[in-house]
Amino acid sequence: SSGSAPLAIFSFVDLHFCWTRWTFRLPLPLLLTMSNQKIKKANGAEPDEFESQVAQELLNLEMTSTDLKASLRDLYITAAKEVDCGAGSKAIILYVPYKLQKSFQKIQARLIRELEKKFSGRHVVIVAQRNILGKSYARSQKTKGLRPRSRTLTAVQDAILEDIVYPTEITGKRTRCKVDGRRILKVYLDGRDQANVEGRTDTYAAIYGKLTNKQVSFIFSS
Predict the structure, then answer these.
(1) pLDDT one-digit tens code per residue, 137-194
(2) CA–CA separation, 77 vs 88, rounded Å?
(3) One-character DSSP codes across 163-207
């Protein structure tokens, strides 16, 4: 009738919880609000479309995966990027808060496996968000001393490399200088992980190059 209040129109999303055999219908606006809790960008910036998609998949895993539900409850990312790795392949970089890195690493293998299923087999890597402090860095009046070694350019780039290949251990490094002046970092990885990691080393090299502008090649130690 003309005196009745207008009806609110919502889109609904069905979520099936396999362990209960129940299906819940949640309003799409509510689901989007919940997924935004899985990404918290610096300075309150809004996530882009791809980042929102990744956040939604993290929320889906939290709500439907019995293995990851408890672990993902308090975890979130700060950014997500899709990068071109050449030869038509792409990979996904998830940036996570440094303080949450160890919590992510506890479930990293399972989380990456599930996300790679969701994103059509694209390789996924997790990198902690770090700030590089320049040589001119000056502490506040309340603190004294030199800049932390962990925040120098070299230290941050080394940490990024360890993040990219995790949980595989780096057993050695060498820098090779070519005749044309180019430098290539040769990284030796634990040979025990060769069967699982060998198909990912091209992706690792491409991502490291994108993030640091340095060339790297991977070799498995015997």
Answers:
(1) 666 555 566 667 777 889 999 999 999 999 999 999 999 888 887 889 999 999 999 9
(2) 26
(3) HHHTTSPEEEEEEEE-TTS-EEEEEEE-GGGHHHHGGGHHHHHHH
Which pLDDT tens digit goes with each residue over 28-74? 454 456 667 899 998 889 999 999 999 999 999 999 999 999 999 99
Alpha-carbon span 131 to 102, nearest angstrom = 18
Q: What is the C-alpha to C-alpha distance for residues 151 and 98, in angstroms, rounded to an integer? A: 12
SS3 46: coil
Q: Which of 172, 190, 183 is nearest to 212 (CA)?
A: 183
Q: Which of 96, 92, 93 is nearest to 120 (CA)?
A: 92
User: Three-state SS for 133?
Assistant: coil
Count, in order, helices (H) and strands (E) of the chain.
Answer: 7, 8
Helix, coil or strand: residue 89: strand
List the structure tokens of 59.
Answer: 């929320």
140 backbone dihedrals φ, ψ, rounded to 5°: -70, 170
Q: What angle separates helix 28-35 from helix 49-64, to the nearest 10 degrees?
A: 100
Helix, strand, or coil (residue 9): coil
DSSP annotation of 147 reads: P
CB 52 within 8 A of CB 58: no
**Global model pTM greater than 0.85:** no
Cβ neighbours of 86 (radius 10 Å): 11
